[in-house]
Design brief:
alpha+beta; four-stranded antiparallel beta sheet; three-stranded antiparallel beta sheet; about 160 residues; about 30% helix
Length: about 160
Amino acid sequence: MRRSPALRRAAAGGALLCGMLLAACAPGGPRPLALGQEPCTHCHMTIVQERFSAEAILPTGKVFAFDDVGCLADWLATAAEPPASVWVWSAIPGEGWLPAEEAVFIHSDSLRTPMGGNLAAARPGAGADSLRASLGGTLRRWPDLRAPDPPPPPS
């Protein structure tokens, strides 16, 4: 039995609507920041620079914004609910938001970040290597930033 074109369009439209509803219920990607207006969830300073910012998104879709990757890492250490996704803004122009798990982080004393985390995110590759070479410092991965600080050496 052949279906009419109208029935096929209706079925395709219904499938599209179901997909959109499912997508609306699930946490999406990062949202644009209200630079100069929005406070950091952790330190409460106004977020004024995208290049060091980050966002954590809960399974409910609630978004928490941060002015510094260090603020995000500190907040995650005490968060009541684990996020569904974590995003960082790349310091490399044109890269935009990156999933934190996929980014590399340049840790350098020559970086001046809002809360002194001295971390800048980038997509792994030549851009990150070039940024690290120009700033000095080390490349780190997201799991390294999530690990608690080691205890101080015995005196």
